[in-house]
From TrEMBL:
<feature type="domain" description="Amidohydrolase-related">
    <location>
        <begin position="4"/>
        <end position="301"/>
    </location>
</feature>
<dbReference type="InterPro" id="IPR006680">
    <property type="entry name" value="Amidohydro-rel"/>
</dbReference>
<dbReference type="GO" id="GO:0005737">
    <property type="term" value="C:cytoplasm"/>
</dbReference>
<dbReference type="Pfam" id="PF04909">
    <property type="entry name" value="Amidohydro_2"/>
</dbReference>
<dbReference type="GO" id="GO:0016787">
    <property type="term" value="F:hydrolase activity"/>
</dbReference>
<dbReference type="GO" id="GO:0019748">
    <property type="term" value="P:secondary metabolic process"/>
</dbReference>
<dbReference type="InterPro" id="IPR032465">
    <property type="entry name" value="ACMSD"/>
</dbReference>
<keyword id="KW-0456">Lyase</keyword>
<dbReference type="InterPro" id="IPR032466">
    <property type="entry name" value="Metal_Hydrolase"/>
</dbReference>
<dbReference type="GO" id="GO:0016831">
    <property type="term" value="F:carboxy-lyase activity"/>
</dbReference>
<protein>
    <submittedName>
        <fullName>Amidohydrolase</fullName>
    </submittedName>
</protein>
């Protein structure tokens, strides 16, 4: 059985058009043919598609809601054509909480989404902020899978260091620490959080955080390290320099395969696959299969059911309009 890619983007033509029309901050080249080729060459059977755009980029709630609905519907239509190969993590228009809750309901109940994507912050508010409480209550009720996907940090980036090189990792780390230190991670135990890019800096900075957090936040010593196993960590853009440390810190049972295609080039996909094929002792005795597929099946069990019923979606069952 092949790999399940839990961190996979698809900038479909409709999405690219909307991004240009609305002045969204970026667009990325994508084609179905290239995606099929990359998946085949790297033994990827399933890709769970997500797309990240910060809701507060938009000047008003209506525009944010329309854009996110259109993005999610476009991906759902694509997934419906090959439901055994693709899944959907819906984007949510935060910080507009009411619209985000509406999008959660539409995504799960109408589109049949497999989970959602959240950016770690909305403006200056990170995931542990009270802003997110109503949303997390609903996601916890649904035992939802939530991919935490970074964006540029609040405030200007360093001119000499492009934000994708370091700021993205810090954004994920801030989001995870905010969940831990605010107590949100404990208040919503049924949400399954997946941290992008090996968890940013979190696995490697956990001891530092534990040494400093009690004095700053009054939390119990060791809280951060004890919380590491409440997250999953995808392998996107980790490679041989990061993967062994990640596996040693959190264990292979918390690591899931991810590529960041098509935002990351095929060389990045090739690098992480090569790293996973190395004879790391942490990947012995079936652990490699857990990372490649097994852990993801725990999050997305429908991909383990090959029956026609489990794999059939009716593209006409939801409204394909914004």
């Amino acid at each position: 059985m092949g790999r399940i890619d839990v961190h996979h983007h698809a900038i479909l033509p409709e999405i690219s058009r909307l991004m240009r029309e609305l002045g969204a901050p970026f667009t990325i080249p994508w084609s179905a043919a290239e995606t099929d080729r990359v998946m085949a060459e790297h033994d990827i059977d399933v890709a769970v598609i997500s797309n990240a755009v910060p809701g507060d980029f938009f000047s008003d709630a209506r525009r944010a809601g329309v854009f996110h609905r259109a993005v999610n519907v476009a991906v759902a239509e694509y997934v419906a054509e090959q439901p055994a190969r693709f899944g959907l993590l819906s984007a949510l228009p935060m910080p507009y909480v009411d619209l985000a809750l509406e999008e959660v309901r539409h995504s799960f109940d109408v589109l049949g989404a497999d989970g959602v994507l959240l950016v770690p912050h909305s403006g200056e508010s990170y995931l542990g902020d009270p802003l997110y409480e109503p949303l997390f209550e609903e996601l916890d009720r649904r035992a939802a899978v939530v991919l935490v996907h970074p964006m540029a940090l609040p405030g200007p980036a360093a001119a000499q260091v492009p934000y994708v090189l370091a700021d993205f990792l810090l954004d994920t780390t801030r989001g995870a620490l905010s969940l831990i230190l605010s107590g949100a991670l404990d208040r919503y135990p049924d949400i399954r959080f997946v941290l992008s890019h090996g968890g940013g800096f979190l696995p490697y900075a956990a001891t530092r955080a534990d040494l400093l957090a009690p004095a700053f936040f009054g939390v119990e010593p060791g809280l951060v390290k004890r919380s590491l196993d409440r997250f999953y960590y995808d392998t996107a853009l980790t490679g041989a320099s990061g993967l062994p440390s990640l596996l040693s810190t959190v264990g292979p049972e918390r690591v899931v395969f991810g590529t960041d295609w098509c935002a990351a080039p095929e060389t990045a996909v090739r690098e992480v696959v090569a790293a996973l094929n190395e004879p790391w002792p942490q990947l012995a005795d079936g652990a490699r299969d857990l990372v490649d597929r097994g852990n993801a099946l725990g999050l997305f069990p429908r991909f383990g059911d090959t029956s026609e019923k489990a794999c059939l979606r009716d593209a006409s069952s939801f409204r394909l309009s914004a």
